[in-house]
Amino acid sequence: MKWLIYFLVLLSIIGYVSAATIQGVIYDISLDKASNVVVEINTEPKQQYISKEGGYVFNVPTGNYAIRAERYSFGVLESSAIEKVSIKSEGEFVLDLILLPTIDSELADEAEDIQFEDDYFNGKPNYLLISIILLLVFVIFLLFYMFKKYTSLEKEEGQIESDEYLVSVLKIIKKSKRITQKDIRKQVPLSEAKISLIVSELEHKGIIEKIKKGRGNILVLKK
Predict the structure, then answer these.
(1) In order of start, what are the domains of the chain with their CATH numbers?
(2) How much of the chain, in percent, has pLDDT values that exceed 90?
């Protein structure tokens, strides 16, 4: 019986002697070397190593493994990392680990408890929501179209009104040959400001000209 036990122990020793070496450096989220990290690998039996200065090393036979690193603060898991590695031959392998902050277990439980009742968030289309969105888009488009049409119509009406009065003022000047702006206002039902704009427009187009007389101006057709 003893010789069987010795044989099994010898086989395990031979296995680890011919094993590969996995080593690396453990970093925190700031990419600084992490200290006081518990590192373990799921060999048979499981190996565990406490890294004081950020490095680790394991001797393992060929196979598939998972290396897990955990750092605790006052007994609470602060950050962790897990990497899978496949060893198919002997040799030295380098595998660095980066510790990521661990979500608080209570917050994680609360996050798991959150359930979205809306079918839209469960991968099913919410036809009511889609209909409302389409309706809003249609209303916005309709309002924009009406506003644009109203603005264009208002502009055209204003232009027509302006042209009609412009023609009227021009006829009065042609008929009178020489007339003041004040006399034009008596014949055209517009404010003094609007008549001034019409006169300025006719002058700008080179149709009439102003002749200074006293404190006022005489309007005549430009020759």
Answers:
(1) 2-113 (2.60.40.1120), 127-221 (1.10.10.10)
(2) 29
Q: In the 8-state DSSP scheme, what is residue 40?
A: E
- Cα→Cα distances 205→158, 198, 200, Å: 19, 11, 9
> Which residue(s) pair with 211 in the sheet?
218
Task: Give the N- to C-terminal CA distance of the chain in Å, as an integer.
Answer: 136
Give pLDDT, residue 38: 94
Asked if residue 121 has pLDDT above 50, the reply is: no
Residue (of 217, 166, 218, 221) closest to 190 by Cα position: 166
CA distance readout (Å), 121 to 113, 116, 117, 130, 133: 15, 6, 8, 13, 16
Decide: 39 and 51 in contact? Cβ < 8 Å.
yes
CA 105, 107, 110, 114 torsion: positive or negative? negative
pTM of the model: 0.41
Res. 78: pLDDT tops 80: yes
